[in-house]
Design brief:
The chain is of the alpha+beta class. The protein contains 9 helices and 8 strands. It has helices at residues 24-34, 45-52, 56-68, 85-115, 157-164, 168-175, 191-204, 247-250, 253-266; strands at 72-74, 81-83, 118-125, 128-135, 150-152, 207-210, 217-225, 231-240. Helix 1 (24-34) packs across helix 3, helix 2 crosses helix 3 and helix 4 crosses helix 9. The longest helix is centred in the middle third of the chain and has 31 residues, at 85-115. It is elongated.
Length: 271
């Protein structure tokens, strides 16, 4: 029996039934990325076109867009593509979050009990602090945000801790792209002032924020370190300045540092 020829590299496969809640372009981009593996580390347009059943022009547009977003890299000599650093960075954030959830939650519960204020864990994404864990204060008057909330790192205690923990060359590269945003009249918007603040944070091991990110809110944060000693996240206590300011804010430094140490040890840090 003669074989029935399948779709050629430039032949579009029959599309799935359209789902109004999904984007076919996003699905195709995801399918394309999944073709890369430990065995197939580099792939070209023609090969991907055949595997996916998409036209070469479609595949080329997908590849160009993904490369522009740093999810793929193109080898200039061969013209083939491989997974980019952008995907590695996203994977690192996910891995850190999974590990952090297990390591941080007992310490967060204890810290909230000790302080009576909102406690949270943040990671750094570029020049933003992203809050990945959070337990609200039991008080009626408390600050409001949510897991996944982002703030400019330079105006939060967690963000300052994370920036202060960057290698010097990495910090220089990121600050070269910094466009200061004054969230309040107290926000640091001068690069030299920020650098001086970050040096202080690195030396003393904790950071504070008094109405720099939001009027009426203050916080204190400390670094969480991974097995290799690098700062992978930050833990902080935050509350309204009617309860948390001056000496009342500083009294949280000890509990926050202890919680940071506990989480760091659970992540394998032994420094």
């Amino acid at each position: 029996m003669a074989a029935v020829p399948g779709p050629g590299p430039a032949t579009e496969r029959p599309a799935r039934r359209a789902d109004p809640g999904r984007l076919s372009s996003v699905r195709n981009a995801a399918r394309l990325l999944k073709e890369f593996s430990g065995v197939d580390r580099e792939l070209g347009v023609t090969e991907l076109s055949g595997r996916l059943g998409l036209g070469k022009s479609t595949v080329h547009r997908l590849l160009a867009t993904l490369a522009e977003e740093r999810l793929l890299e193109r080898d200039a000599a061969s013209g083939r593509y491989r997974l980019g650093l952008g995907l590695y960075e996203l994977g690192a954030v996910v891995a850190a979050h999974v590990d952090l959830h297990e390591a941080a939650m007992p310490a967060l519960v204890s810290l909230r009990q000790r302080t009576g204020e909102t406690v949270q864990v943040a990671v750094l994404d570029g020049l933003e602090a992203v809050y990945v864990e959070r337990l609200d204060s039991p008080h009626t008057l408390r600050i409001f945000s949510r897991v996944g909330h982002r703030l400019p790192a330079h105006c939060t205690s967690s963000g300052k801790v994370l920036l202060a923990g960057l290698p010097p060359e990495t910090l220089d590269a990121r600050l070269a792209q910094w466009k200061p945003v004054a969230m309040t009249p107290c926000t640091i918007t001068d690069e030299q002032v920020l650098r001086a603040e970050l040096r202080t944070v690195a030396q003393r091991g904790w950071a504070e924020n008094v109405e720099e990110g939001e009027l009426g809110v203050a916080s204190v944060g400390a670094p969480i370190r991974g097995m290799d000693g690098s700062v992978t996240a930050a833990i902080s206590v935050a509350g309204p300045i009617s309860r948390v300011k001056g000496a009342s804010l500083r009294r949280f430094c000890g509990p926050v540092l202890e919680a940071a140490t506990t989480i760091s040890r659970r992540l394998g840090y032994r420094g």
